[in-house]
């Protein structure tokens, strides 16, 4: 039975090798993901740069990626279009949905140069984006003068619109009630 | 001094009359505002109706009013345009800004058939809209199947994106940092 320790030794060696290979593979995968995320965030940063260079809006860029390919990229165009909703993320989501011909982006990743404001974050959520990678923190935008923390505060209040400067009135309106109840079965949820 | 009680009586009568007139005026003003709000909310309700009739989106309408005049009106077009951001409020804000040629709507009122979702509320705030009048509560939309409460929950968490299904990663990226610091003096705040 002299072969027993030999076989045992070979088995141990093979197992160790497999373990080393697995760990290595995991490390490479992690690095690959790091590299991919870093690369697409660079594109978002360059979009932000364009917004400032062309005086189109604030220094914010966004990129939407599917299966490693850029589906849409955009930068803030609030000043250019005089549209307060023309944030990089909103424009990128609109472009991505148009390019893919569908309402939701559940197979995509969004890269934003800066932490999105509550409007853009909510839009991401409505678009079913499952992953966000961002660079600068909201505080960096705040330091420049872009402050959207009051919006989050308004939504954070015990009632939805508390703490905002906006006065809110609710009216019990029969036409409004009708539009919901009458169309109960006709509504297509998206 | 027989005229003293006479003058006193006349003064008392005049004061009472002034008081009655003031109260009446206040009541009429309040009724006028009620009527105005109710009327514009009807327009929003009819916009919501159009969205369903034409299968363009959910039963949501919005109207933006300045000095008693409608500046913009819109309904949800998510299904028509396959754009998840095409909420009535967003479209109305975009139209109003375009029509007035400016980024902010601080002299306007927004009328929404339903309580806005967090994206639309944030957009209202970004547009500096100082007043919102709405009809149906968010629960009515929720009952139909439109649920945006998870978005508010996500923003409500102790960290901005807690409680959402979206994974969030922050990367410290030199290009992102540069875009902020390099352009510190060039940025135009809106």
UniProtKB/TrEMBL annotation, chains A, B:
<feature type="domain" description="CMP/dCMP-type deaminase">
    <location>
        <begin position="35"/>
        <end position="147"/>
    </location>
</feature>
<dbReference type="InterPro" id="IPR016193">
    <property type="entry name" value="Cytidine_deaminase-like"/>
</dbReference>
<dbReference type="InterPro" id="IPR002125">
    <property type="entry name" value="CMP_dCMP_dom"/>
</dbReference>
<protein>
    <recommendedName>
        <fullName>CMP/dCMP-type deaminase domain-containing protein</fullName>
    </recommendedName>
</protein>
<dbReference type="Pfam" id="PF00383">
    <property type="entry name" value="dCMP_cyt_deam_1"/>
</dbReference>
